[in-house]
Amino acid sequence: MEIRKEAQAASSGTPTAVQLEAINALAKARLNGEQVYVFSLRLCDDQIDRDFERFDEAALPGLAKLFIGKTGIVDHRWSTENQVARIFETQVVREKGTSYIKAWAYIRRGGANDEIIADIEAGIKKEVSVGCAMGRAVCSVCGSEYGTCGHLKGESYEGQVCCAILQEPVDAYEFSFVAVPAQREAGVLKALGGKRKLKELAEEFGAQGEYRVLAKDAELGRRYRKELEDNVVRLGLALELGVSEPVLRNLTGVAAAEDLLALKEALEGRLEEMLPVTRQLGGGEKRESVESGFLI
Ligand SMILES: [Zn+2]
What we know:
Blueprint: E1 2-13, H1 17-26, E2 36-45, E3 53-55, H2 60-67, E4 71-73, E5 83-95, E6 98-108, H3 113-121, E7 127-139, E8 156-157, E9 160-161, E10 164-177, H4 182-186, H5 198-204, H6 208-238, H7 245-254, H8 257-282, H9 284-295
Parallel strand pairs: 3-10, 4-10
Antiparallel strand pairs: 1-2, 1-7, 2-6, 4-5, 5-6, 7-10, 8-9
Helix pairs in contact: 6-7, 6-8, 8-9
This protein binds zinc ion.
Zinc ion binds near residues 141, 142, 149 and 151.
């Protein structure tokens, strides 16, 4: 899954000799200290963010390595002329109970880049958005693959707020300076799959509110679907259809929601028909209580 988070840039200045070595290891042409401007970035950390997600601390070192050599762009478009900065060094920093990836990036001085450097110095281009791909998200409540257990991010379970823990770094992408302050409110750009996703488009067209409502509904929909599947499997087993649970699971997993609902109702009806029989077989006491129920 592709993840996009906010991060922060801090101004720095002229590179040290060691930093210049690292920069030149990546640069096409050899650069000297006067030609580059260095700044640092606070990338991902292991704290729960407003999406109720956090990076697993164990995932940070691997992710930090993936960010080396990645470029920074000024807007969200992918074009080479906009790629102005490049990360040349990363490190996992631990302080005050938090672990985060600190990155150092450089920009070549001169031309339009000087404006960007001035903006970073002035704190205007302080906010950046970073992207990466993570292989796994697990539920903080029960440790299952997130989305399979029914626990929902942000919901409280016996005093414990559920979040998704992002694990197994797969790739790191470019970062971009967030030019419009309003986008900060829009929060984090995050998508499953390809490059241009609904959330990204919602952000671009100012439909973040609607997107959030949709996302919440979708989450509830998935939970409802899971319940529906569970119910059908349970009914199938209770009715002793002679079909094994894995087969029932496979079938319910691919069935359309309407079909599942129809099947559930049909199976419930069948179970109801069988219940009086079951009760009678269950012994006298039960039957009496049922019969007295009818008399009232
Ligand atoms: Zn869970």
